[in-house]
Amino acid sequence: MPEPTLTLVERLKSRFTDVLLSIVEARGEVTAELAPENWLATAKALRDEPEFRFELCMDVCGVDYLSYGQVEWDTSDVSSEGFSRGVEALGPGRFSWAERPQGAAPTRRFAVVAHLLSVSNNERLRIRCFAPDDGLPIVPSLLSIWPGVNWFEREAFDLFGIIFEGHPDLRRILTDYGFVGHPFRKDFPLIGNVEVSYDPERGRVQPVSIDPRVGVPRVVRHDSGLQQAAAEAAAAKR
C-alpha cells in the first residue's frame, strides 16, 4: 500500500529538523520559527524544493512583542455588563515618556513575519524570525529570494525600525522624511511631543505652536422632555 501523504508540518519537521526553533499549527495555520542565521537558506529551500514550492511571499511585516501577553482591561472586579469593564490606562502609549515601558530582555522583542503561498501545492506557511538585539534589530532581507517584498520590508523598517540587511534601498515609505521614531513600536507615545503642520507653499512639514483644546460635540435631540429642548422650543416661538 502507498504511504499516506505527509502533512505540511510533518514535511517541515523532517526536512528542517536542525534549523526549526519551533513549529505550531493552530486554527489550520502553520507557523515556523527560524533563527536569523538560517533565515535565508531555509526561505530559499522553501521556494525551490518541489515538496514545498512556496513561489510567492504574500507579505512581510514587523511585530513588536513588548508587553505581549499583558492586559490592561479591568476584568476581575467589575460586572459583565455596561461600561465598567474599562481600561486601567496602563498599557503602552498611555504613559509619560519618562515612564515608557522598557523591554524585559535584550532579545526576542522584534520579529519579522513572512506569509508564504504555494500555488503548486495549494498551501500556506508563516515563517518568523526574531532579531537578536532589540536595541538595533537586524534581520536578513528576503529580497534576493522574493523580489516582491521590497516595499514590505521598507514598511517594516519605517514603522518598526527593523533593519533588513542586504536591502538595496532601505528608506522610509509611509512617514515623512523628517519623521523621528517608528510609530508602530509599543513604546512610541500616542501623544505627540512635537507639534507640526504641513505648509503647502513650502511643500514640507514644519513645527508650529497650537493651543491644546478639548472639543465636546453637541448632541441635538428632538426630545420635548429635555430642558434644553424645551427652552429652545420656547425661544423659537417668540
SSE succession: HEEHEEEEHEEEH
Query: Helical amount among residues, as a percent range?
Result: 10-25%
- Give the low-pLDDT segments: 213-218
Number of H- or I-type helical stretches:
4
Work out the count of structural domains: 1
Could you give the order of strands across the largest sheet? 1-2-5-4-3
Find the CATH topology. Beta Polymerase, domain 2
The major beta sheet can be summarized as: 5 strands, mixed
Tell me the distance between the termini. Answer: 96 Å
Let me know the CATH homologous superfamily: NADH:ubiquinone oxidoreductase Nqo5 subunit
Q: Mean pLDDT across all residues, rounded?
A: 81
Globally, the shape reads elongated
In the CATH hierarchy, the architecture is 2-Layer Sandwich
Structural class: alpha/beta
Report the radius of gyration as a whole number of Å: 26 Å
For the record, the CATH class is Alpha Beta
Topology overview:
Blueprint: H1 8-15, E1 20-26, E2 29-34, H2 39-48, E3 56-64, E4 110-118, E5 123-130, E6 138-140, H3 150-160, E7 163-165, E8 196-199, E9 204-207, H4 227-237
Parallel strand pairs: 2-5, 6-7
Antiparallel strand pairs: 1-2, 3-4, 4-5, 8-9
Give an account of the 3D structure.
Helix content is 17%, strand content 22%. It has helices spanning 8-15, 39-48, 150-160, 227-237, and strands spanning 20-26, 29-34, 56-64, 110-118, 123-130, 138-140, 163-165, 196-199, 204-207. It is an alpha/beta fold and 238 residues long. The protein has one domain: Beta Polymerase, domain 2, CATH 3.30.460. It is built from four helices and nine strands. The protein has a five-stranded mixed β-sheet. Strands 6-7 form a two-stranded parallel ribbon. β8 (196-199) and β9 form a beta hairpin.
